[in-house]
Amino acid sequence: MADLTLAALTKVYPGGVRALDSVELTVADGEFFALLGPSGCGKTTLLRTLAGLETATSGAVLLGGTDVTAVPPGRRDVAMVFQDYALFPHMTVTDNIAYPLRIRKVPGRERRERAADTAAELGLGDHLGRRPDQLSGGQQQRVALARAMACHPRAFLFDEPLSNLDARMRLEARTFLKRLQRELGVTTVFVTHDQAEALALADRIAVMEQGRIRQLGTPAEVFRRPANTFVASFIGSTPMNLLPGTAEGGAVRVADTALPTPEGLALAEGEKLTYGIRPEYLTFHQEPVAGALAGEVRVVENLGSSQLVTLEGPAGEVRVVVDEDTALAPGTAGHALPRADRALVYRDGELLGPPGYETPATGTRTP
Amino acid sequence: MATSPPEPGGPPAGAAPRERDAAGLGRLGATAFVVPALLLIAAFLVFPALWTIYLGATDYRLTGLAAVDPQFVGAENVERALDDDGFTNSLGLTLQFVLGSAVIGQAGLGFAIAWVLRDRRGFGRRLIEAMVLLAWILPSSVIAFLWIALLDRDDGTLNALLSTPGTAWLLEHPMLSLIVFNIWRGTAFSMMLYAAALGNVPPSQLETARLAGASSWQQLRDVVFPRIRGHVLTNLLLISLWTFNDFTPFLLTGGGPEDRTEIMPVFIYETALFGGELGFGAAISVLMLLINLVIAVVYARLLRRRKDVDR
């Protein structure tokens, strides 16, 4: 078990693609850490550089305080679980789990015992003699986890751990993974493109774009106060409304409506701003309300316990989450009133905070 | 085919017979399509094979009385062949040639090149592939000439390179020369087959092995070979048979010096056409065919066993 530090880590692929651009990052001992971003943002390269499968162009990787930048993957004492689990098809579950032990020349009896113990911990006790193609997706994933656990590495690296499971299994596996990580207490870094997965699993999240970390923080910080419009549009299962507006008398005027803003913002009169509000933090009214965005209901999407309503008005498209009891039909008029304390104001794409508020981009871990 | 319209909800009437006749040609139509191909196979494969078996049981000769009126001698030719030093010598040489140049040489070198090039892209890889392929696609006669020039005693390129003037490679090391020649000539096929096979090995499995600390050899043993075992067997089957039946060495050495490179096809050629003993030559051909069959059956068995294990 160890903490992980990346110092000015840069990776440039032959051909000039800059996959990582001087990334600075510290993952605390025992932390469950998510690398989140759209495809091509460098998150997988970062994970592979941690594993030693890619060599950094410059910068350093520190594991438990020692520089492992030049150490080959086999001697870093980290275990990785790949998206496709990478189980060896010709080996039984036992042999798969015991493989790292076999490479370390652990005697056959002992490694079979350890494999059986680990398998039993993960509920695979009845499947020791099977081959991977005789297992379900969830069981295969657990075999891969068991193989990673069996040699007690200092850190786990998971590449898209849940993406090969079907939707139902995914939720189950998510809870399972989180509990397992808690119990083992091993520093774990995982990569995902699914913001819901990152929010649900991680202690802290790094949101990446084009080889840079755009925001680093706890799930709550990243969700509530996205540091920039990129993170704001990326996090959240329904994308945040980002409305162009201008400052006017302490409020933000979008189209012809003055929208309420959180307290303590210093806004220069007339400057161009972006007003961000999540669909969940807008309340829907059928009658006109002061400070509400007006529009016509265009689309109603049923989300089960709520509905996602798209209003089209002078401010453009605005999405609102409305509770399930409100009967709505496309074509009717609607008004969406923002919650002032949940509204976010961005200048040049960066979040404006009240004076004295710590800028979220340097957010520290809150246990 | 006339069928009643299927009843709603029920199984369509006449479904079963239609399944057996997917193309809807009927027995006569299907036969008409197959017959021309069968006739060609019969005329050019089955008949010559049977004819060879018949010839092998006669004392048929190229010239003389037996050419006009060959006599049936039964298994006499086969018995004679098995007692003949020339035949056993030739069989031994052929095995050396097949093992040395195909099983060890071409398969080994082909795999090595494919393994080294597996992650490479760009000019270097294309250059090596082009060179290896060139040896494979050039006509045998051209290649034979090139190698005679390379190995020549007086002005040979190899002697110039190694500063060993006066070494007559084809006379002093005839079988070794042929083995090296055939490795060079035939590696391309194995290289391409293994390159394709290696493309099927999931990178994540190799990386898992690397993260566990596996050496290159351990990665090959634990990840690559189990994965490409079928490709290896197919490759070995094909190149063994091709090399077994290869006649190109004759163009280099003519079987000499002193029968030291008289591999099976050359031996048959010498016996049947220079010696004029067509019947005896045919009998040896049949023996050779049987050996080929044995090779094929052994590999097929190994392949099938692999599938059983997989299941």
TrEMBL record, chain A:
SUPFAM superfamilies reported for this sequence: MOP-like, P-loop containing nucleoside triphosphate hydrolases
Keywords attached to this entry: ATP-binding, Nucleotide-binding, Transport
Keyword Transport found: yes
GO cellular component, one term: ATP-binding cassette (ABC) transporter complex, substrate-binding subunit-containing
Molecular function, one GO term: ABC-type transporter activity
Organism ancestry: Bacteria, Bacillati, Actinomycetota, Actinomycetes, Kitasatosporales
Residue intervals of the ABC transporter domain: 4-235
Stored InterPro entries: AAA+_ATPase (IPR003593), ABC_transporter-like_ATP-bd (IPR003439), ABC_transporter-like_CS (IPR017871), ABC_transpr_MalK/UgpC-like (IPR047641), CysA_C (IPR041193), Mo/tungstate-bd_C_term_dom (IPR008995), NA-bd_OB-fold (IPR012340), P-loop_NTPase (IPR027417)
Superkingdom of the organism of origin: Bacteria
Family annotation (Pfam families): ABC_tran, CysA_C_terminal
Keyword set includes Metal-binding: no
Protein name (Swiss-Prot/TrEMBL): ABC transporter ATP-binding protein
Automatic annotation (TrEMBL), chain B:
Residues in ABC transmembrane type-1 domain copies: 87-299
InterPro entries per the UniProt record, alphabetical: MetI-like, MetI-like_sf
Record-stated family: Belongs to the binding-protein-dependent transport system permease family.
Membrane association type: Multi-pass membrane protein
GO cellular component: plasma membrane
Transmembrane domains' residue ranges: 28-54, 97-118, 130-150, 162-184, 228-244, 278-302
Localization in the cell: Cell membrane
Superkingdom field: Bacteria
Name of this chain's protein: Sugar ABC transporter permease
PANTHER family membership: BLR7065 PROTEIN, SPERMIDINE_PUTRESCINE TRANSPORT SYSTEM PERMEASE PROTEIN
Keywords associated with the record: Cell membrane, Membrane, Transmembrane, Transmembrane helix, Transport
